[in-house]
Amino acid sequence: MTADLAIEGYVDQVAAALPGPARERGDMMAELRAGLLDALDARRRDGLPDDAAVAAATAEFGEPRVIAATFRSELAARLARRCALTLAGTGPVVGLLWTAAAMASHVGMPHALPWEAGAPGGSTAVVRILLVALLVTVGGALVTIVATGRLAARWAGRPRVAPAAAAVSGYGAVIVDVAIFTLLASQLASAPGGLAPLPVAGAALASVARLLLAWHAAQRCRAALA
Amino acid sequence: MRAETLKGHLDGLLLASLEAGPRHGYAIMEALRAGSGGQVDLPTGTIYPALRRLERAGLVAGAWNEAGGRRRRVYSLTPAGRHALAAERGTWRNFSAAVTALLEPAPRPVTS
Fold this sequence. Notes:
Chain A is mostly helical. Helix content of chain A is 78%, strand content 0%. Chain A has two domains: 2-62; 78-225. Chain B has helices at 3-6, 10-17, 25-35, 47-56, 79-103; strands spanning 23-24, 60-67, 70-77. Chain B has a three-stranded antiparallel sheet. In chain B, strand 2 (60-67) and strand 3 (70-77) form a beta hairpin.
């Protein structure tokens, strides 16, 4: 029993500083634990008393700090991939909802987004920020997906690229949402009558949800870099 | 052999250890030790993340399996893994032939 506790202590030390999706991290730690128990059994079969068997098994597995570092890059890659796929999946939905809201609102030109024509002063800069942020978001997500894909996984090199790109993509998405809300606010201030309430409310809700999600994802990926 | 010496070859060794059939992580490590006469002696903990990366690369497939009252994750080679292993072998043969040719003392020219 004491031996099992000592093994648990080793696994906890490795797990303590690991990022990543909780389920995958738990799965990897369960595998590490099973391996340690196998090593412990082997030492017991060699006739070692429990204390010595635990010491030999954990020494064989390596310094927890070193082992955690090797798990860390794999988990960070998986976390980054998950974040990028989430952003890639939710982005077009939010985009479509805003486009639909803009078209239903008949703001500015009939077939254009509300901010493209007749938009209140100052919004051109916001539109530029929005477009740049959109490019950064899409680019970051693409880089992450490629860098964590099957081909890239064959080479262990550069483990920081994917979480960094995913974090940039997440922050980009946050900026996109904030820019859209800025434009919406200026529209509300200048010509609230033109907005179709339901489609705009639906798009705004989706955008808020995505903003929170993107922020959370970006923070986690950034933390995984540390 | 230390981890740094093996760097770049660990993936190939892991794939090779699965060629004869599926194995779990600890059995892979034992196979590497036994197969190299104890020369390959990495910290065992490092092979688990490496196996997960190979799984992400589609070269091995892992699945939980219960035997003897303990759940273990058992890995097997995928067809892509077999291809990668064959490629790794070819690369290693060329590399080791070249290094051997350069490192071994040249035979003295026969004079008669």
